[in-house]
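In response to the reviewer comment on reproducibility (Comment 2.3), we provide here a single inverse folding case reported in full, input and output, so that an independent group could reproduce the run without further information from us. The structure tokens appear first.
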């Protein structure tokens, strides 16, 4: 299934000229293809994924890996260990190149699906 991308995010990434643009695009594709209800926008000056709230945003300060911050990552069950950190709310996923992204694809999609499940069970 082809992911539906937001032209605003397309333009942002084109203009950003980040050294890991190819890897960022792959992570983006995986997230958007996880569920057709996932949307993306530019928020906090970075691409952000949403479904009934903010899921995750890219953190562009890292140049050696793709950094994706899950705003409420502490709430998301993560049996894979993809999410790092022990803060009160946020967690980070790091991807070290295309091979690593492919290896972690299933774990990333599971985390996105868990977020959707959490949001859909909220009253």
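Designed residues, in position order:
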């Amino acid at each position: 299934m082809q992911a539906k991308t937001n032209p605003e995010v397309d333009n942002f990434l084109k203009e950003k000229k980040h050294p890991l643009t190819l890897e960022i695009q792959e992570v983006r594709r995986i997230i958007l293809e996880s569920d057709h209800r996932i949307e993306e926008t530019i928020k906090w000056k970075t691409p952000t994924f949403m479904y009934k709230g903010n899921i995750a945003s890219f953190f562009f300060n890292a140049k050696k890996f793709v950094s994706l911050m899950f705003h409420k990552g502490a709430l998301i069950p993560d049996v894979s260990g993809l999410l790092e950190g022990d803060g009160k709310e946020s967690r980070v996923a790091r991807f070290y190149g295309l091979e690593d992204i492919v290896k972690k694809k299933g774990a990333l999609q599971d985390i996105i699906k868990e977020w959707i499940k959490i949001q859909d069970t909220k009253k």
